[in-house]
Amino acid sequence: MDRRSFVKSSALLGAASLAGIIKPSDAFASVKGPRKTGTAKPSGKPVLRFKDGEFRILQLTDTHLIYDRPEEYAKTFARIENVVAEEKPSFLALTGDNVTGEGPTRKAMWNKYLGFLDGFGVPYCVVYGNHDAEAGMSRPEMSSWVVSGRNCVNTLDPVSGELADVRLPVYGADGSVKLELYFLDSHDYSSSNGFGGRVPGYAWFKPEQVAWLKRECESSVAENGGVHIPSMAFFHIPLVEYDTAWNKSKFRCGVMGESVCSGEINSGMFLAMLEGGNIMGVFSGHDHNNNYITDHYGIALAYGGFSGDNTTYTDLKHSLRVIIAKEGRREFDTWLHDEYGNRICKVAYSNGEFKNY
Q: Looking at the domain that runs over 3-356, which CATH code has it been given?
């Protein structure tokens, strides 16, 4: 049994399938139908803006914070603090497996983590991984904690009470939208798709989510006079295309230290992104020994660096991924900021082309 299998089999899965169907947010996302339209921010939520032509994103993934392991989360917090001080991000993207451990301690750990994040004064958005809702955790209850964060830009789905899939606008100097960020729930195990026992392993995006993303891409183009706003997507479980891209792409940078642990079923989400024409990069977590970025038909498929400590497995240096979007251009730079302060695997993306620098 490999370590990924061990982590999965040893987890408390009794309540891991609590995820419901995620429907569009009534804020940030532009939704056709009875809910609000447009991209106005809800009251009290931070507005995302470029600064000096850049929007700097720091991706935190697989922190696996455990309240009863203070020596470990102290190291994780110190590393994040150091990278924030050096990279000065505009925004934090949390891509799942954030808090683990025993159920009764998770609220205390979330409170500590959110307080720590709020201390930076930087907006952040959260998605869950396959381990966040284990140990008897209720996703709606957990989501109510998350959105209480002072600088959290998540919204709750009005039906399920869970974190909604959202499209977040980032505004340029002229007040118009120059970048959009999609945050999507990749769920946990195949049981959340209704196939537990028939299809093993991890979950995949639901048809409703694929349809939502298509609508959002179409709405974005319509709202912006036919222009495709450069966009990025963030979620936990990688798409099946991550494996194909690594094996077939002419460009790749970073490490593939374990198999891509995606869902068994291809949901069609990558095709929706490709057809939509908006998304230039996808950023996931989940596989602790993978930190690569590669090209798949002009869309970057990338892992964040493993951001946690010794509460779970990894063979790689602990790191966080930095992504710097360029205002008014379909371009971004990205690298991994490792635990020794090094910027490694530096990649420049421009209009579907990739190069190291």
A: 3.60.21.10
